From TrEMBL:
Membrane-related topology note: Multi-pass membrane protein
The protein's name in its UniProt record: Very long-chain fatty acid transport protein
Keywords: ATP-binding, Cell membrane, Ligase, Lipid droplet, Lipid transport, Membrane, Nucleotide-binding, Peroxisome, Transmembrane, Transmembrane helix, Transport
Domain AMP-dependent synthetase/ligase: from-to ranges: 53-434
Native organism: Rhodotorula diobovata
Molecular function in Gene Ontology: ATP binding; long-chain fatty acid transmembrane transporter activity; long-chain fatty acid-CoA ligase activity
Catalytically driven reaction(s): a very long-chain fatty acid + ATP + CoA = a very long-chain fatty acyl-CoA + AMP + diphosphate
Assigned GO CC terms: cytoplasmic side of plasma membrane; lipid droplet; peroxisomal membrane
Species lineage: Eukaryota, Fungi, Dikarya, Basidiomycota, Pucciniomycotina
């Protein structure tokens, strides 16, 4: 028996080693192919990622390009629509390098508009369609667009901020998917762009001259990130970085013309825009665009569209698992799920219940200059956000590093020589990524029209005098086998519903109705990320009007940023410099066995109501979806 067990252990070790080498070679091959393609494109003056799409469209022609709610567009149909829209944009007087703001929900028009901008070297700013009021006005202002293209159904939000948009042309987009198009009240001074207008435009290809001289370091779009403080910042997303991601991801996951990717993720995020839409241009794959995520209809939509790959963020997989088991759970063609935020406790349960063979997890940020990935089809490294074998580690040597963090200052610790100290194996440390602005894959472009925020993300003299690294603001740990695991976020942000939430911004909004609030994120059972919690002091004798507070947060904050919990504390603690202390509050969370203060919660469909022990138990049992 002992001999049999020993042989079995050796066999398992052999299979694990073989698997590691295979996956390591796959990732290395993607990196090499990306670098060769970038060099070739640079030599041929074809750095624009527009050519990635055009090459696929010229070859695939009548094959499915985009599918949405039963409507299918071929590559050729998309190409003709892109040409028409590009000519229309040119007719509006747009010059190379100009920006436009794109404020649309998920629909085929989204990638078509992006492609039309790429064809004429105009930069679209992808605005979160959940934003309204000050947040919306700010994001548009940051982009300084010549034109704001918005969904017909979102007209009221644009009308509310139209006076503050600085003279940009307002263009209302109306198409098959604009549900309120027939009755929607327009915005004063707007233009209306619909199929009738576009049919009058030429379908001729935009000449190469319009894209001549585009560099890999030129921006191809602006994607917003909340950052560490304040309102959202517009990350400059570069042609070279996108082209690298397209090729690496295509190779890593073996995507091709028969791949059908279903994504209900928002197209204004890099996850869907770059790793679904853009990757599909490289792989010649079909993208099935879900208008909005619904756990109830997810698998039905997947089956109806014949998708064989699905995209997720962590909450998506958890919500799917929370649905009652069904005989149809494995009645689909999906072979791979990819995205970010799949927690270790979800990983194997999702794979086993739904029969999805491979989970391809990644770690990256919109503005960052590096990434981690873990394509995983067995239990080895399940739950890791990245893995590196010997080959990939050779490519990445000193490029992506974990630094020990001072627990008091939350800044990287430095040794006697003034240089940063590497974190030990399995020790959480801040991930920093080496900056090389002469490299398409290591450059850090920063934020559009925000040099102060850009400089704040750069750390100098890290491993050598005067070197530069990008600070992710994230704590990770790396084990001895090369697996990377997410640990936490640094600073005054928390991540909820796949969005980075600025505590300062939320506190500012709450300050309009309460004297003071300390905002932080708390862990909640059966949910990913951290939910917003606001500690409000009673020391000033203030009484909280929770009905008014419910209405205020609904009006002034996006849903993902609304504090789901309010803790009434005797007083707020702060440092000598006036900085609010959050660590203890964050660690205590809202567990009634730990927190003796009165806690209220934003009960779904009700508003703020007292948070009781039975509510906590319902969360723990997964009976409540926040």
């Amino acid at each position: 028996m002992a001999t049999t067990a020993l042989v079995g252990a050796h066999a398992l070790a052999y299979l694990d080693a073989r698997y590691r080498i295979t996956e390591d070679l796959r990732a290395a091959r993607g990196i090499v192919k990306a670098r060769l393609a970038l060099n070739r494109n640079n030599r041929n003056d074809r750095n624009s990622i527009y050519y990635v799409f055009e090459s696929a469209a010229d070859k695939e022609r009548d094959r499915d390009c985009y599918v949405c709610e039963g409507v299918t567009l071929s590559w050729r149909q998309v190409q003709l629509s892109v040409n028409r829209l590009a000519h229309w944009l040119l007719a509006q007087g747009l010059q190379r390098g100009d920006t436009i703001a794109l404020y649309l929900p998920n629909k085929p028009a989204y990638p078509i508009i992006w492609l039309a901008c790429l064809a004429i070297d105009v930069v679209p700013a992808f605005i979160n369609y959940n934003l309204t009021g000050q947040g919306l006005a700010h994001c548009v202002a940051v982009a300084a667009p010549k034109l704001v293209l918005f969904e017909s159904d979102l007209s009221p939000a644009i009308a509310d901020v139209a006076a503050s948009l600085g003279g940009a042309k307002l263009v209302r987009w109306v198409d098959t998917f604009s549900k309120g198009a027939a009755t929607e009240k327009g915005v004063e001074g707007e233009m209306v762009l619909d199929e009738g207008v576009l049919q009058q435009m030429s379908t001729e290809r935009i000449p190469d001259e319009r894209r001549k001289g585009i560099k890999w370091s030129s921006p191809c779009c602006l994607i917003y990130t909340s950052g560490t403080t304040g309102l959202p910042k517009a990350a400059l997303t570069l042609h070279g970085r996108c082209a690298t991601a397209f090729q690496v991801w295509t190779t890593l996951n073996s995507f091709g013309p028969k791949t059908r990717i279903y994504t209900p993720m928002p197209l204004y995020h890099s996850t869907a825009a770059i790793l679904a839409v853009g990757v599909a241009w490289c792989a010649h794959s079909t993208v099935v665009i879900g208008r909005k995520f619904s756990a109830t209809t997810f698998w039905r939509d997947v089956r109806d569209s014949r998708a064989n790959v699905v995209q997720y963020v962590g909450e998506v997989l958890r919500y799917l698992l929370a649905r009652p088991p069904s005989p149809e759970d494995k009645q689909h063609e999906v072979r791979l799920a990819y995205g970010n935020g799949c927690r270790p406790d979800v990983w194997e349960r999702f794979r086993e219940r739904f029969g999805v063979q491979t989970i391809s997890e990644f770690f990256a940020s919109s503005e960052g200059n590096g990434s981690l990935f873990n394509r995983n089809s067995n239990s080895l490294g399940a739950g890791a956000v990245g893995k590196e074998g010997w080959i990939v580690s050779t490519f990445q040597r000193n490029k992506q590093v974990l630094l020990r963090v001072d627990p008091l200052t939350e800044e990287p610790a430095r040794g006697p020589d003034g240089l940063a100290i590497r974190a030990a194996p399995n020790e959480p440390g801040e991930l920093v990524i080496q900056i090389d602005n002469s490299s398409p894959y290591q450059a850090f472009a920063g934020y559009h029209n925000n040099p102060a925020a850009t400089n704040k993300k750069i750390m100098r003299s890290v491993l050598a005098k005067d070197d530069m690294y990008f600070r992710t603001g994230d704590l990770l740990r790396r084990d001895a086998d090369g697996h990377w695991y997410f640990a936490d976020r640094l600073g005054d942000t928390f991540r909820w519903k796949s969005e980075n939430v600025s505590t300062a911004d939320v506190a500012e909004k709450l300050g309009q109705v309460v004297d003071e609030a300390n905002v932080y994120g708390v862990l909640v059972p059966s949910h990913d990320g951290r939910a917003g919690c606001a500690a409000i002091p009673l020391s000033s004798g203030q009484q909280v009007d929770f009905a008014a507070l419910s209405a205020h947060v609904a009006r002034t904050l996006p849903k993902y940023a609304q504090p789901l919990f309010v803790r009434l504390v005797p007083a707020l603690e702060s440092t000598g410099t006036g900085k609010q202390l959050k660590v203890q509050l964050r660690n205590e969370g809202v567990d009634p066995d730990v927190v003796k203060d009165e806690v209220w919660w934003l009960k779904p469909g009700v508003g703020y109501t007292p948070f009781a022990k039975e509510d906590w138990e319902a969360l723990k049992a997964g009976k409540v979806k926040l």
